Structure formats: C-alpha cells, structure tokens
Amino acid sequence: MTGLIVGRFQPFHRGHLSVVSDLRRAQPEGSLILAVGSAQESFTAENPFTAGERVEMIQRALAEGRVNGCLPVPVADIHRHAQWVAYLRGLLPAFDVVYTNNPLTRLLFERERIRVESPPFVDRKRFQGEVVRRRLLENRGWEELVPPAVARFLVELGAPERLRRIAERVKGPSAESAP
Amino acid sequence: MTGLIVGRFQPFHRGHLSVVSDLRRAQPEGSLILAVGSAQESFTAENPFTAGERVEMIQRALAEGRVNGCLPVPVADIHRHAQWVAYLRGLLPAFDVVYTNNPLTRLLFERERIRVESPPFVDRKRFQGEVVRRRLLENRGWEELVPPAVARFLVELGAPERLRRIAERVKGPSAESAP
Amino acid sequence: MTGLIVGRFQPFHRGHLSVVSDLRRAQPEGSLILAVGSAQESFTAENPFTAGERVEMIQRALAEGRVNGCLPVPVADIHRHAQWVAYLRGLLPAFDVVYTNNPLTRLLFERERIRVESPPFVDRKRFQGEVVRRRLLENRGWEELVPPAVARFLVELGAPERLRRIAERVKGPSAESAP
Amino acid sequence: MTGLIVGRFQPFHRGHLSVVSDLRRAQPEGSLILAVGSAQESFTAENPFTAGERVEMIQRALAEGRVNGCLPVPVADIHRHAQWVAYLRGLLPAFDVVYTNNPLTRLLFERERIRVESPPFVDRKRFQGEVVRRRLLENRGWEELVPPAVARFLVELGAPERLRRIAERVKGPSAESAP
Amino acid sequence: MTGLIVGRFQPFHRGHLSVVSDLRRAQPEGSLILAVGSAQESFTAENPFTAGERVEMIQRALAEGRVNGCLPVPVADIHRHAQWVAYLRGLLPAFDVVYTNNPLTRLLFERERIRVESPPFVDRKRFQGEVVRRRLLENRGWEELVPPAVARFLVELGAPERLRRIAERVKGPSAESAP
Amino acid sequence: MTGLIVGRFQPFHRGHLSVVSDLRRAQPEGSLILAVGSAQESFTAENPFTAGERVEMIQRALAEGRVNGCLPVPVADIHRHAQWVAYLRGLLPAFDVVYTNNPLTRLLFERERIRVESPPFVDRKRFQGEVVRRRLLENRGWEELVPPAVARFLVELGAPERLRRIAERVKGPSAESAP
Fold first, then answer.
1. Residue D155: how many CA atoms within 13 Å on its side-chain side?
2. What one-character-per-residue DSSP string does A35-48 give?
3. Per-position b or e across D52-66, b if 16+ CB within 10 A of its CB
4. CA B128 to chain CA mean position, Å
5. Which runs of E-coded beta strand occur in chain E?
6. Hey, are the CB atoms on D87 and A89 less than 8 Å from each other?
7. Is the C or the N end of chain E the one with fewer CB within 10 Å?
8. Measured between alpha carbons, how far is A161 from A48 in angstroms, rounded to an integer?
9. Which of A137, E81, C99, C13 has its CA nearest to residue F40?
C-alpha cells in the first residue's frame, strides 16, 4: 500500500519526522510519498527554503532516523483547487491513501473517492513550521525542534541569516526594488 | 443591443437576479452576457464554488425567474489590468454596453471607449456575496438571500459543509499541507 | 562599467532621480540599467501606472535632468526567487554591479557572486513611492515629490483621478465585478 | 440529461450544426454544452476566429436553425492532458455524457468513468474545419459549407481577407516581426 | 558526490537502466538524481506516460536491478533556457556533476560552471525512447527493449492500446475536438 | 512623433540597422521604440540569443552608426493575438505609428485604429535573420551581414559555436535529455 502525505516542510521538523516514522512503521511493507508543496517558492518568509533544499533535508533526516521506503517529490502550486487532485495523480506514483488533518485537503480527495486518514498529532503546539521559522529568525531555540541532521543542514545553509534578510524592510528610494 | 455584466457570483443571489432581470426587461429585444469572473478559483473562502457550479446556478435561477436572453460565460482572471478589456472582447460575443458600479471596471472600459452604465442598487446591505458566504458558513439565514432554485442547488452541493471545511484551520504537523 | 538598479518606480520620484543622477555622475563613462519591476501590473493601488508609463516618466525626468547613459527596461515578475537573477541576466544587457538597499535583493545577487553596492539614501521619509501614491490619491502635495517633468506627465495621465477610482470600494450586487 | 461536445468550431460549419441538431432532437428534454476549445487562440491559420466570434456564430446558427437548449462555453487550452477532464468539470455545468469521435478524448473521459458516445458522421469529407478554412483563404465555395447565418457573420468579419493576411509571408528586415 | 541525469524516460528503457546502473557502480558512495523532464506532459505521441507513471517505472526497474541511491524527481518544462539551470538547482538537491550527451544541455550547465560528463553509449540504435514508442504503437518487439519490471508495468497500463488511441486521427465534425 | 518597430533581432543585422537608421533620419525630432520580441526565448535554433544580448547588440550597433533616439525594449510573447496590441501598449511608452511589412501585425494594429506604415525593403534576400543564423551555424560569410559592432559582439559570445551546439542531435539513452 502506498500512502501520500502533503506538506510544505518549511523546514522538515520533528513533528513531520514523527508522523512519517509512525506511518512507515505501521505499514512496513508499503511506501510513502512526501509531496513537497509550494515547490516554486523560496526566499520568502513563509517559504524560506527551496524545494531542493527541502528534499535534501528530508533525505538527511530519514537517513539519520533509519526510516526507509519514502519518496520526497517537489510539487509546485497550481492554484486551481478543482484540478489539484488530478494534478497530483499525474505527477506522483499511484497511491492508495492520503494522510492529512487539513479539512480542505480531505474534502478535495474525498470528492475523487480517494481514501483519507488523519494521522495522530504530535505535540501540535511546538511542532509547527511557523514556530520553527520564527525561532530561526530570532536564532534561538530552533535546534530542538528539528532532527539533528536538519539542524546541521540549516546551519550549512546559514538559515537564521537568510530568514533575517528576508524579514528586513528598508525604507527609501530602493525599498521597493524587491524581486 | 448586447449588454455585459461582470461578477463573480459567489453565489448568484437575489441582488444579482434583480439587476439581471431589470436589465432584461428594459431591453427585451437585446441580450445580456454574464461574465462569471475568477473562473479558475474554487474551494476558497472568497470563491467557494467552481465556475461550472456558478454557471449552473445562474441557469437555474434564470429559468425559475423566466428571464431569458442571458449567456453566462466563465472568465478566468488574467491579473493584467492593461489587457483585461482586450481579453474580454476576445472571449465574449460583441457587446455594446457594460453595466457596472465598480469605478475601476468603469475606468478600464471607458479608456477603450466602451459605453458604461450604472445599474441601480438593490438593498445593497443585504445582497452581497460576502454576506451570503458568511451566512452559509454559519448555516443560518442564507436561504432568503438567494433565489429558491439556487437555495436548492446549494443544498445539493452541501454548500454550508463545504464553507465550513474551507474555513477550518488545523494546527499541527500536517496543518500546512493545504493544496 | 554597467550598473543595475531595480525598482517599481510607481511613480519615478525625486529620490529615484537623485540616486540615478549620483550613480551616473560617479561613473560617467559607464551606463546604468533601470529595471522597471512588476511590469505586468497596472491600475492597482500598489502599481497604478503601466510599465510603459513608467518607462516614459523615467525618460522625461532623465531628459529634463540631463542625465544620460540610462536604459529603462520593463521587467515582469516571475514570482520564483530561485530563478530571479538568471531571469534578469537573460533579459538585460550584461551588468557588473547591482545597487540596492534591499537585503533580499542583495542576498539573491550575492548567491550568484554578483557585486552588490548600497546607494546612499536621500531623505528616506519623504521620497517613497507609497507616500507619493497616498498624496496622489488625496491630490495634494505630491508635485514637490516628483521631478517637474513627471509632475506634468502625471497631470496628463489624470493620475489623481485614476488613484481615486482604483481606491473606491462599492458595496452592492456589482461590487465584486472587479477585473 | 446534459451532454457535452468539445470542438474548436473554426468556424462552426454545417457538420457541427447537424450533429448538434440531431443530439438535441434525440434528447429534447435535456441540454447540450458546446465547449469552444482553444479559446485563447485567434488570428492564426488553425484558429482564425476569437472565442467570442465562435460563440457568436454558434448562437446565430442555432437561432436560425431553431435549435435550443445549448450552452456554448469558451474553454482555453491547458496543455495538461492528465488534468483536462478535471479542468472541464470545474469550468462547466455538470454533464452526464460526452459525444466524441476522437479516440484520445474518449480515453481521457473513460479514465474518469464518464460515459462517452460517438455521434454519427455527416459527410465527413466535406464538413471539416480545415476544408472550410482553406476555402475561406481562397474565398471560393465556403458559403455552402456553413449555415447561412454563419456565412453572413463571416462576411461581416471580413473572414476571407483575415485568412489571407494571416497566411501571407513576407521576407525582409521586418519579416520576423510577427506578434 | 551527487550526480544528475536528465531525461524524459518515455518510457524508462534498458539503455537508461544501463547508464544509471553503471554510474551508480562507478560512484557507490554517492547518489544520483534522475530528473524526469517534461513532467507536465502525458497522453501525447512524444510523451505518452504521466510523470507519476515514469517515476513508478523507474522505481520498479531500479528495485528489480538492485540499483540503489537514486532519486527520481518530476520536472516540468519551463521553456526558458536562460533560467533552466537555476530552475533545476532550485528544484533538486545539490548536485556536483551532470551526465549528458546532449550538447545544448552541456552548454547551459557549463555556462554556470557546473561540471559535465558524457556517459558512454549503450547500443544507441536500439535503445531510444522513440524506437520503444514506435514498437509499443505497433505492439511488437517492445518488451525486449525495457527492463522486465517496466514491461509488466506497461502491460498493466495498457500501453500499446494507449499509444494506438493517441495516434489515431479521425476526420469529421468532431475530429478537432481533441483536448 | 514616436514610432514602433517590432522584431526578434536574432541577430540585429544590417537590414535592421538600415531600416532603423532611415526611420530616424526621416523623423529626427521623434523617437523610435524597438520591441525585441520573443524575449523569453534563447539558445534555440530560431532564437539563439537572449533578449539581453539582443538589446546589447542593438545598443552597440546604434552607437557605432551614430543613430540616436532609439529605445530597445524586450517583449516576451503572450501567444494571445487578441490581446497583443493591448499588451504592447501597456508595456511600451505611447507610440503614434507602427512600421511593419507583416500583414498580420498590420491587421492587429489597424483593428485598434493605430496607424501602420510599411518601411522600404533593403535587399531582402540577403538581410534576413534566418540567413544570418544559417551562416553563423556554418561559420562562414556572416560577418558581412551584420554591423561591425555586432560582428565583434557575436565573436565575444562565441556565436558560431553556440549555434553549432544547439543544432547538434545525439542519438542514444541521453538524447532526449534536452532542457
């Protein structure tokens, strides 16, 4: 059985790893696709890391955690909800079940008669991408929220400095010259 | 004479029906194009219904109200205001006059020397898409704001449930996995 | 040596002219490319003028100020930060240095090993596009913020009236019929 | 029962009218959606007429032939076959059956478990868009291939002259200045 | 060391497997990214299989051949050669070397100072996607050109029938109704 | 008076320079916009040079020929003929007349009531982009077809080698790995 989990993984944190690891343990003979959403985005406050960087942090965290049978796939947004499930089915290997706690994601898959299950939550207050990104910006306390391999990778990338630069606003003649 | 009215019709409510019906009565020998804007959007808080569903509710409401001579046409956004009038002219049958109370819409058409008229308002406080969508979300009092045929269609679609699912926010590892 | 400055120039104001003029004086034998960003946008609150109008106001202001050696180039957004520098390099003549005070712009160019310098600020409180647009909307005090040639051009365009129409919000059946 | 027929209708000819008319007669209580494909195309050899012009010629021909219950809808190409059926379902009112003789169209709809039927052919040699366009270019013998209302409309549009201009190739410095 | 190989893999044949297998053997400690190009295409003569199907056939063939350390990634075309390398770098994990025999691919990567190597050819006459697709269309002799696991998968997909339907051309009123 | 000339300028040759130079001499007090079309294309057989390279060769040739009052502007294709004139008007400074020998270009501008004139031809057999590109590919006899400044620039770019690499076709496992 092949499962699908969709996220942006900005960054891949311990909550993600826990869910993925549990799903793999529950279905050791199957496999799991990790759709890395908003793949076209990077260097923004919401999406600081490129899709390639996100795939790489997933690979490193799974290798470190000895979780196998996972395939991370970058998926760009299409901003067309009515086509989104068909788009994913065209881009990904065939899957049998989708794991999500997002009611809209559930709605869209169920409309196409695809089985949807809710994975259990893991300390939902702490393990949120938004929290990790805020701590990265302030460069304090983020290391404990991500797997060690991801922490090392984020240091290599200069992630706190990147978040800081993205967040800065300058007033003046060239202030509007953002890309 | 062919008129054009542009809206998103999320959903098609009694204010829309009243304007369309009045315009058709005033020009019985002409016809009226209803451009169904933001056609690429659906399953969002602002645009819960697909273009096809909106075309269908327009057809049902007009049939019920015995209003004829109308052509609903889905029109996707191009997000290029300087090309928008040329885009509409390419997509729609030739039209002679545009009915709008939106000052920007008026400006863009007048720049191309197309005649613009303002339709009278119909109890503008109640008959707004935003109000109907809010009531659909709370599932109370929305039926009186839409034509009966639209009310029945919205029930068929499970509209209140759809609005509720779109609005829900879940915190946790998979919270960011929205499409 | 060819420099590059990126802005939206909505509109081209005296702060812009001052920076451009200083850069040209400092490198009289070189040239300066003015990338006119968000070129696809117009008739919105943030981007009221078309790219063509912005190129034209730059040309008029530079002619009036006797600043030569500048090339204004309209550049549409691609909304893909990871490709943005490659996109600019494909669209523009070769350049040696980028002038910017925007930290993200700096980051993206430095990642590609392109030299970045910060131009000095010119009374940053007053000379901001946002301030000029707000004053245009209120139609008072904007003339002193732009070069005389731009002021005349903005009058020709009916800029205050345009800003006013863009800003207006109408409630009612046709309120959502914006382009 | 609602049927769907997909075509480019470049232009709407007597073969199209015959099929549409037969389908309507066979299902008088139902309705028929005419998806006007490649809606974004116009002024090319393959697609000389805008979507709006095509919708208009369909309306005139159906009125002339007293065929009712049809809804022409412009549909832009998405060039993504795996999403095409989902795209149409989002854009169009709900439909129960698709009429097509195109094997690929059949394949794509059947994959989504939508009923497909083949309409009978009507003198397939003569009634082809390609033949009508070639005769329009040569401005001889095209009138008999289209309904009278379409013939009058094509004269209004200056169709033969348009086809001729599109087809012309000029060699020289400005030869490559095509849009 | 991470290598990159770019292909369309329509379908993944024994020539592909041989190259991938040799590269993995030569760098057992490294890894190899397989960019599955033209990911947005499917159900056309040149690109009959979806990106998801292609990823799946790669996974099956590599599992069968006991080749590990490979990551297949679907990559949609951007049709902007000047941005193509930046696009790939944003979408993929970091790579050190590109393997290609395509002179244009080589040129584009070398311009960005990325190391490029040419993999040896494997009986180039037989092992070409074009040849496999032609034989699939004729449904004879294609099995020997693909790994056994891919052959089984192509049978599951009904590949010869799919190729045949895509290739068919019908003349008549609905002939132009292709998606 | 401001004129507009639209071309792809792949590359800018002596035929282009002659037309531009004549137009400038005939209207010394006016100005001329050179829209550099298909700006998004590069490194293809039809469009080997980036828009930036084309703008740069135009600048060099005009400086060498002491032709002033010209503004080269890169213009990406929109592939929507019905919107093309509106698109150009939004992107370019206001213009009064278009110079073209292309019948379709003439048709599209005349539909918008813009004045169109035909510039005289200059030895049309020799001075064609296609001829220059073919000679560049064969690396013989191309220098005499372009202004000396362009010839030097093309040597700097390694143009013959670039054309050769683009043209090469390799058969084999990686043959389809083109960008």
1. 9
2. EE-STT--SSSS--
3. bbbbbbbbbbbeebe
4. 10
5. 2-7, 31-36, 70-74, 97-99, 115-117
6. no
7. N
8. 11
9. E81
Give the Cα separation of C58 and C30 in Å (integer): 18
- Three-state SS for chain F is CEEEEEECCCCCCHHHHHHHHHHHHHCCCCEEEEEECCCCCCCCCCCCCCHHHHHHHHHHHHHHCCCCCEEEEECCCCCCHHHHHHHHHHHCCCCCEEECCCHHHHHHHHHCCCEEECCCCCCCCCCCHHHHHHHHHHCCCCHHHCCHHHHHHHHHHCHHHHHHHHHCCCCCCCCCCCC
What phi and psi values does residue C64 have, to the nearest 5 degrees?
-60, -40
> Which tokens in the block code for residue E81?
């050669």
CATH code assigned to B2-167? 3.40.50.620
Tokens of C97: 């240095």
Task: Name the packing angle between helices F81-91 and F103-111 (round to 10°).
Answer: 70
Q: Which residues of D touch E53 (CB under 8 A)?
A: none
Which E residues 95-154 touch A at CB under 8 Å? none
Of A52, A72, A90, the CB nearest to E42: A90
- pLDDT at residue number F179: 58
Kindly list the domain boundaries of chain A, sorted by start residue.
2-167
Q: Across the strands, what pairs with A34?
A: A5, A72
What pLDDT does B127 receive?
Answer: 84
For F65-78, the three-class secondary structure string (H helix, E strand, C coil) is CCCCCEEEEECCCC
A51-60 pLDDT, tens digit per residue, is 999 999 999 9
Q: Chain B residues with CB inside 8 Å of C41's CB? A: 81
Chain A residues with beta carbon closer than 8 angstroms to that of E60: none
> Which pLDDT tens digits describe chain D residue by residue (179 residues)?
999 999 999 999 999 999 999 999 999 999 999 999 999 999 999 999 999 999 999 999 999 999 999 999 999 999 999 999 999 999 999 999 999 999 999 999 999 999 999 987 666 667 899 999 999 999 999 999 999 999 999 999 999 999 999 998 654 444 455 55
Distance from CA of C142 to the nearest CA of F (A): 23
- The answer to whether chain A touches chain E by having 3 or more C-beta pairs less than 8 angstroms apart is yes
Within 8 A of D114 by CB-CB distance, chain B residues are: none
| Interfacial E residues in 145-174 facing D (CB < 8 Å) | 162, 164-166, 168, 170-174
Q: pTM for this one?
A: 0.95
Q: Do chains E and F touch (3 or more CB pairs under 8 A)?
A: yes
Q: In A27-167, where does DSSP find H-type helix? A: 51-64, 81-91, 103-111, 129-138, 148-157, 159-167
Burial of F143 (0-12, 13-18, 19+ CB in 10 A): middle
Strand F70-74 vs strand F31-36: parallel, antiparallel, or unpaired?
parallel
Nearest Cα to F164, choosing from F137, F128, F142, F140? F137
The structure tokens listed for A51 are 């899709």
Contact between F15 and D172 under an 8 Å Cβ cutoff? The reply is yes
Q: How far is CA C17 from CA A106, C13, C60, C135, F147, in A?
A: 53, 6, 11, 19, 34
